[in-house]
Structure formats: C-alpha cells, structure tokens
Design brief:
By secondary structure, this protein is mainly beta. The chain has two domains: 29-90, duf1285 like domain (duf1285 like fold, Roll), CATH 3.10.540; 95-186, no CATH class. 12% of the residues lie in helices and 35% in strands. The chain has helices at 59-68, 146-152, 182-186, and strands spanning 41-43, 49-51, 54-55, 69-71, 77-80, 85-87, 89-90, 95-103, 106-111, 116-118, 125-126, 132-136, 140-144, 156-159, 162-167, 170-173, 175-176. The protein is elongated. It starts with 40 loop residues before the first strand and ends with a helix.
C-alpha cells in the first residue's frame, strides 16, 4: 500500500509551495511563476489612495491602507496586516501628521496610520510652499496636513527670515527644505 498514490494529492501538488510570509521573501515566490505581490495600489503625494488608476473613495478602506502601510525588508512600501501583505506605490512622504497636541512641553503628533508620536523638534522643516515636515518612525518622513499645520502654527515664531518652534522656554530653529519639487508645490494636503 505504500506505493499507492494518496487520494488527496493532485497532479502538480509537489511543485506548490506556500506563499512568502514576510515582505521581501522572494525565495518561496520562485516556485510560483504566476504568483505576485505586486499591485496597482498607490498613494499619491497628497495621501489619496488609488487602485487601477481609480481613486479609493471608501474612507474606511483608505484609513485601513494608511494603518497597514509598512516598509518591506527590501525597502519598498507594502500594505501589511495580520493576514497578508502586498507591495504598493507611494509618492511623497511615508506618513501624514493629522493632528498636533501640546502635552507638557512636547508636541504629540497623530499620524495617518493612527500612531501617536512625540515630535523630535530638530527634525521639523518647512518648505517654500509653507508646508511642514518632520521625521517619525525610525527616520521616515511625515508631512503635516492642513489641520495639523494650523495647530502647529500656535507654536511657531517668525523672526526676520527665520522660523522657530517655541515649546515652553525652549526654542528650536525650523530648517528650510531645499526648493520644492513641482509635485510638492502643486499638491495640497
């Protein structure tokens, strides 16, 4: 009986391997020529999601995509949740600052993925287009949306050509970014 074929085995089963479990794990993909983690999902520089060129209009889906945005080990962006992951295109910053709140003498930022982080004042920059940016989550860039910029303005001081962030008795210079790209200056957040 040991030579009898297993009735549950189908032709070609011996060539099947489980899909990669982590972003960037291409070894398992080598056995699946028709299998791909590539998608037509992309997020533009203003934070809007698109699928097959059409805007994702369902707010819940767009918010889920924002929460699932991650970096794959190969450096590319992907959407990753507890079930699956797939590569996506991301234009502009990795995250957006949605709100700003003063807690003690620090600014707390709520990011587009729902995470809450404390602003590292030395990373705050402004562009020629009056947009503000900072570094979050291991150095990834975040852009302040309009609401967060308005809240941030309560803590900014203009002296001559210089902008300062004032938190309690501390003042931090806000660095100017290099000249804005056409994409940055034309896309409103």
């Amino acid at each position: 009986m040991g030579d009898a074929p297993d009735s549950t085995q189908r032709p070609g089963d011996d060539e099947f391997r489980e899909p990669a479990q982590e972003p960037g794990d291409t070894q398992a993909l080598a056995y699946l020529p028709s299998y791909s983690r590539e998608t037509t999902l992309r997020r533009d520089a203003s934070g809007r999601w698109f699928h097959d060129g059409e805007r994702v209009r369902h707010r819940g889906v767009a918010r889920a995509f924002d929460r699932w945005l991650a970096r794959a080990p190969d450096g590319r962006f992907c959407l990753k949740n507890s079930v699956n992951w797939a590569y996506v295109g991301v234009e502009g910053p990795a995250y957006f600052v949605r709100s700003v709140a003063l807690v003690g003498n620090e600014l707390t930022l709520t990011l587009s993925d729902g995470a809450i982080e404390t602003l590292v004042p030395e990373t705050l920059q402004h562009s020629q287009a009056s947009r503000y940016f900072c570094r979050v989550k291991d150095g990834l860039e975040a852009a302040f949306d309009r609401h967060a910029t308005f809240a941030l303005s309560d803590f900014l001081v203009l002296e001559g050509e210089s902008i300062w962030l004032a938190l309690g008795d501390a003042r931090y210079p806000v660095a100017a970014r290099p000249l804005a790209t056409s994409r940055e200056s034309s896309s409103a957040v």
